[in-house]
C-alpha cells in the first residue's frame, strides 16, 4: 500500500488480485495524484495490473492517446458519468456477452465535469448510472450529497454488477474502511455531505460569489438533482 508501517493497509487488501473480466480505465485529474487520502491506489492494489489502467491529465485527444481513443469507440466500453439517456448498469450487464471496459473519472465533482465536457472522447461510450443503496463510506472527505461515491466505491459497486460474485464489493471496500478508521483515530473528523451541512445550518465556509456555484448550493438545499 506504500503507507507508513503504523498505518499500513496491506492486511486489509486481498491476498491475491481479484479475478475480474472488466478492465478499468481511471482518468485521474492531476490534483488527485498528490492527495494523501486518495482511493485509487487502494483500488489498483486490489486488481491485476492489466485490469486497472491509470491515466493522469486534463486533456485527452486521439493523437496523444490512441489506445484510449480505441477504447472509447469500442461498443462494449462504458463510462460512469451521469447522462440523460443512460442505460441502467444492471441492464447492461445482463445484455453484455463479452468483457467490457469501464472508464471512471477521478477528481472532485467540478474537476470530473471539466474533464468530461472538454474531452469529446469521453462522450462516445455509453453512460450507465450507478444507483447505490447506501451512502458513501468515505467519511473523511466531503461529498456534495450522500449518494455520491468515491472512485473506489464507484468501481466496487460497478464491478460487483459486471463481474460477480457480489462479495467483490465488500473486498474492495475493506481497505477504504480501514483507511477511514486509521484517519479518524489520528485526528481526522467525519465529514458530512455539503447538502447535509447546508440544510442544517452547519456550513461554515464563506458562500461563493460566483452565481453559478451559489445556484448549485441552492439546488442542493432544495433537493433538486444537479
Account of the 3D structure:
This protein has 226 residues and is of the alpha/beta class. The chain contains 9 helices and 4 strands, in the order βααβαβαβααααα. Helix 4 links the parallel strand 3 and strand 4. Helix 6 runs antiparallel to helix 7. The chain is globular, with a radius of gyration of 18 Å. InterPro entries: DTW (IPR005636), DTWD2/TAPT (IPR039262).
Topology:
Elements lengths: L22 E6 L1 H4 L6 H7 L5 E5 L9 H8 L3 E3 L9 H7 L5 E6 L2 H9 L33 H12 L4 H19 L8 H6 L11 H11 L5
Parallel strand pairs: 1-2, 1-4, 3-4
Helix pairs in contact: 6-7
Strand content: 5-15%
Task: Characterize the largest beta sheet: strand count, sense, and whether it forms a barrel.
Answer: 4 strands, parallel
Uncertain runs: none
Radius of gyration: 18 Å
Count, helices: 9
Beta-strand segment tally: 4
Please indicate the count of domains.
2
Morphology: globular
Calculate the mean pLDDT score and round it.
77
Work out the helicity level: 25-40%
Q: Write down the secondary-structure element order.
A: EHHEHEHEHHHHH
Structural class: alpha/beta
Termini Cα gap: 35 Å
Query: Could you give the order of strands across the largest sheet?
Result: 2-1-4-3
Protein name: tRNA-uridine aminocarboxypropyltransferase
Catalytic activity: a uridine in tRNA + S-adenosyl-L-methionine = a 3-[(3S)-3-amino-3-carboxypropyl]uridine in tRNA + S-methyl-5'-thioadenosine + H(+)
EC number: 2.5.1.25
Enzyme class: transferase
Short synopsis of the structure:
By secondary structure, the protein is of the alpha/beta class.
